[in-house]
Amino acid sequence: MTSVDVEQIANEQPAVRAAWARLQSAIAQTELARAQDFSDPSYGVGINHYPGTSKAILALRASIPLYGKNYFEGEKQRAHALRQVAETQHAEVQRRTRVELHLLFQNRANAHARLAQFELEMLPKALKVARQAEEAFAQGGQTLTDLLEARRTLKSIQLEALQWRTEFAKAERAWSIGIDRSSP
Fold it and tell me: What is the DSSP letter of 55?
């Protein structure tokens, strides 16, 4: 998995998506506050007729708001401040999520590399040395102390390989939990 995939997974995390939604809401509030700068005049015509009489009233209405350009300045500044806060929070949540996922991915990769080193290099060599020590002891070419030392070394490497299998399993599980948080 590449870091591009980690970036995509980070953007799909619920915390990042929630921060993005808050940012979009703040942008909409900013646009709404900016729209208050424009006043819309309204015109109307109405006819009122009262039953039982032959009189009708014709009414013409015109409404033109007369407030100045700075009338809604406080609301615009508030919306702008909320937008800046939302942008900052979104960037911070995105950064923290990205760092956390990179760390989980790196821990998993390091545990896998260490496990591979033990299982592909050290464990086969220790097994080979232990077999050779068994054969040498069986033919009388080696002392019991050397045989026991070879067995002890093999057991030590087997235990360390087991430890690294456990570490890799933990790192793998942490990684899978980290990326599964994006699934609802």
Answer: -
State pTM to two decimals.
0.65
Does the residue 170 lie in any domain?
yes
How many Å separate Cα 55 from the centre of its chain?
Answer: 71
Q: Is 108 helix (H, G, I), strand (E, B) or coil?
A: helix
Q: Over the stretch 89-133, which tens digit does the pLDDT of each residue have?
A: 999 999 999 999 999 999 999 999 999 998 999 999 999 999 999
Beta partners for residue 56, in sequence order: 49
Structural domain boundaries enclosing 24? 3-36+72-180
- Neighbouring C-beta atoms of residue 119, cutoff 10 Å: 13
For tokens 């990769």, the residue is 109
56 inside domain = no
Q: Domain total for the chain?
A: 1
Task: Indicate the SS3 state at residue 44.
Answer: strand
3-class secondary structure, 68 = coil
Question: For residue 37, which of 72, 79, 82 has the smallest C-alpha distance?
Answer: 72
What Rg, from alpha-carbon coordinates, does the chain have? 37
Higher pLDDT, 151 or 183: 151
Q: Find, among 135, 166, 170, the residue nearest to 150 by Cα.
A: 135
